[in-house]
Write a structure and sequence with these properties.
Strand 1 and strand 2 (36-43) form a beta hairpin. The protein has five helices and six strands; from the N terminus they run H-E-E-H-H-E-H-E-E-H-E. It starts with a helix and ends in a 17-residue tail after the last strand. It folds into two domains: 3-71, Fe-S cluster assembly (FSCA) (GMP Synthetase, Chain A, domain 3, 2-Layer Sandwich), CATH 3.30.300; 83-173, GMP Synthetase, Chain A, domain 3. The longest helix is centred in the N-terminal third of the chain and has 20 residues, at 3-22. The relative contact order is 0.14. A three-stranded mixed sheet has the order 1-2-3. Strands 4-5-6 form a three-stranded mixed sheet. It is α/β, with parallel strands linked by helices.
Length: 174
């Protein structure tokens, strides 16, 4: 491993990786040459892509030799299942494995839509507006669906959390 790659890896492990893991993904350095760092992310694409510019800013400020940070997107994912199949398969998994667990928090999750490998879910009841909803989605629901549905690209939360009237953990409890 080059010195640059080692420096960036140290920054990732110290200040970036914990928040990426909390969002349901991992990230690592796959190459570092001439100031350009290539990162590879595994897990939820929705966990890294929205914050990639912040990750780059943090790396560039901590490691002066870095001039650019890129995300490796060359990996070919398995082809996504058909939307109807994906939607019904995801709902069956949610009904069997997730809903019984979150029922203790007065919660319920349903598939809102599916297409292009993405499953859009909606949290209801005590999960709507819950301050731990993102943790439930990124660390519970998404990894479970990924493990059971090969070819699934990711999970999107379509819940209107602001409209939640009785969240199990209110934002004030955070």
């Amino acid at each position: 491993m080059s010195d640059l790659a080692a420096e960036v890896t140290a920054v990732l492990e110290r200040s970036i990786l914990p928040s990426v893991i909390a969002r349901g993904a991992t990230i690592r350095v796959v190459a570092a040459d001439d100031g350009v760092v290539i990162l590879e992310a595994d897990g939820s694409p929705g966990a890294v892509l929205p914050v990639l510019s912040r990750i780059e800013t943090q790396i560039r400020s901590a490691v002066p030799g870095v001039t650019a940070v890129r995300l490796d997107t060359d990996r070919s994912p398995p082809s996504p299942p058909e939307a109807g199949d994906l939607r019904s398969a995801a709902q069956r998994i949610l009904d069997a494995e997730v809903n019984p667990a979150i029922a203790a928090h007065r919660g319920h999750v349903v598939v809102d839509s599916a297409g292009g490998g993405w499953v859009s879910i909606r949290l209801e009841g005590g999960c709507q507006g819950c301050s731990l909803a993102e943790v439930t989605v990124r660390q519970g629901i998404e990894p479970l669906l990924r493990a059971r549905l090969p070819g699934m690209t990711g999970v999107a939360d379509a819940t209107d959390h602001e409209a939640g009237t009785d969240p199990f953990f209110s934002p004030e409890k955070r």
